[in-house]
Amino acid sequence: MVLKLITKGALWTALAVGVVLCPAAKAAEHVTLKNGFELDCSRQEIRGDRVRLYFASNGNYLDVAADAVAKVEEVPDPPPAAALPEESVAKHPGVAAELTPAEMHTMLAHAGGEHNIDADLLASVVRAESGGHVRAVSRVGAQGLMQLMPKTAGELGVDDAFQPEQNIAGGTAYLDQLLIRYHDNVALALAAYNAGPAAVDRYHGVPPYRETRAYVARVIREFNRRKRMAAEQIARAK
To answer: 23, 55 in Cβ contact below 8 A?
Structure first.
């Protein structure tokens, strides 16, 4: 199996399907250009007949013609994970409310090792899906750290989606299936994780759903943040 790590090549694959990331920035606007490119940016500034799209507070930006912008949308912050209903909590007295960072890392590293998927990518998915809350439940019934739907969880052999190890193992196996299906195209695999493979296949790429495009960008941005922090820690240690 091919080692599934996000590399420069994988990020270029993400760009090729229309997901352009603003490095090290919390996106506030989603800009769609008439040529089909889409960018998540912190802000924009009109400069004559040009528009300057700022990627981050560090001054990085892109200048485009004003008439090249098709539309600008606000990118919402991800909704907070819903609390597990009290009656369901009572059925899971042995499930810890939260994991320590060390516990989370150990579980993600183990699952990543089983499927050759970078643990930082898994951690980024967990953060986007549940905020790291073991007992999170979405409005449509997705459960646990990696927000598995009951039917999907059953197909993956997950007996209890609120058990962290089972949830991570199932979610990682599912992401592995999607990476194989889309030939290690990380953006497509993430889009399918969010919106379902049928939507990705229907549109032959990342679906034009605002939530899904924001989700893909958010996960890859978080992955980049984690890798940047790791590199900085190594540099400081030298």
So the answer is: yes
